[in-house]
Design brief:
By secondary structure, the chain is of the alpha+beta class. Among the domains are: 1-74, Multidrug-efflux Transporter Regulator, Chain: A, Domain 2; 170-230, Serine Threonine Protein Phosphatase 5, Tetratricopeptide repeat; 239-305, no CATH class. The protein contains 14 helices and 6 strands. A hairpin with a 2-residue loop joins β2 and β3 (95-97).
Length: 305
């Protein structure tokens, strides 16, 4: 069964402008019709925004959840997304999922404690220490998020994420967040190291590949940037930002056909935001200097920088 935009607004009791606002923020794609799963996603967005969760956190969470459901669609009816303090938590069946990477996590808060109680005394200390480190790592991760959102000094944010990573070296999401803070501070080499650590933990982490693509693009390493953008799209075919950045990169490389393909793919996923306006403008610039024969654009005239 499918639903129209009018149906969605009526069922969720939201105005059409609210739906358009979420589309502009790229929290949700613009769709001609909606399935039941899409309604569940919209209900989640509505609840999290009502709880003042930052749009960037919602976007990352929904993207990771989408990737997980593409791999295991049978889980769609057994998922719970909720706010826990400053973090967003995802429960998949009886397991927790890292909302940044989509990795399923062990539930230290329940299963691990029960196991601890059943262990021989000689082993309890080791498990208790792992549990303590996990809880402390979560604390420092949340502290890093809080410092980012309040505009705290760069060094304090780095310190919080590093403490979290030291305590829990298996958290790919922590290394990605740390890498992004370093990237924004123009610490290229250190950022690259953190993104690569995230991929060692989870090679299928689309966001880590995308961020590495951004880093290499910034350093004018087009070959490496293309490789990681393409891998992000392989893992997440509806990754709008990856299509956008690939279109720009191919355009700079004068690969007009590839640029057009990714601009068009991006506009199918996002047709209303400010970035969509830029995409249309870039596509129009290409079309203004090309003659299209079938589906293959050929350059007629172009001005090099």
């Amino acid at each position: 069964m499918s639903y129209t935009r009018k149906d969605v607004c009526r069922l969720l009791k939201i105005p059409g402008r609210q739906l358009r606002s979420w589309e502009r923020q790229q929290l949700i794609p613009e769709l001609p019709s909606y399935r039941f799963r899409d309604l569940l996603t919209l209900k989640t967005v509505l609840r999290l925004r009502g709880e003042s969760v930052h749009p960037h956190v919602i976007k990352q969470t929904l993207r990771a959840l989408h990737d997980r459901l593409e791999k295991e669609p049978h889980l769609s009816e057994d998922i719970r997304v909720y706010r826990d303090g400053r973090r967003v938590r995802v429960q998949v069946g009886k397991q927790k999922m890292d909302p940044l990477s989509g990795q399923l996590e062990f539930d230290f808060a329940a299963e691990e404690i029960n196991k601890l109680l059943q262990l021989p005394a000689s082993q309890k200390n080791d498990v208790a220490e792992r549990l303590r480190k996990k809880i402390e790592a979560d604390h420092w991760f949340e502290r890093g998020l809080e410092l980012e959102q309040t505009g705290a000094p760069y060094e304090d944010i780095i310190s919080a994420y590093k403490k979290s990573a030291e305590l829990d070296p298996t958290s790919a999401g922590t290394f990605v967040n740390l890498g992004t803070v370093l990237f924004n501070g123009h610490a290229w080499r250190e950022a690259e190291e953190q993104y690569k650590k995230a991929l060692e933990i989870d090679p299928n982490y689309a966001l880590a590949h995308f961020n590495l693509g951004n880093l290499y693009d910034e350093q004018s390493d087009a070959e490496s940037a293309l490789q990681h953008y393409q891998e992000a799209l392989r893992l997440h075919p509806s990754y709008a930002d990856a299509h956008y950045n690939l279109a720009l990169l191919y355009q700079a490389l004068r690969d007009i056909m590839s640029a057009v393909r990714h601009w068009r793919a991006y506009l199918k996923l996002d047709s209303t935001s400010t970035w969509a306006q830029i995409a249309r403008r870039e596509l129009a610039k290409i079309e203004a200097v090309t003659v299209v024969t079938g589906n293959r654009p050929h350059i007629v005239k172009t001005d090099r920088d």
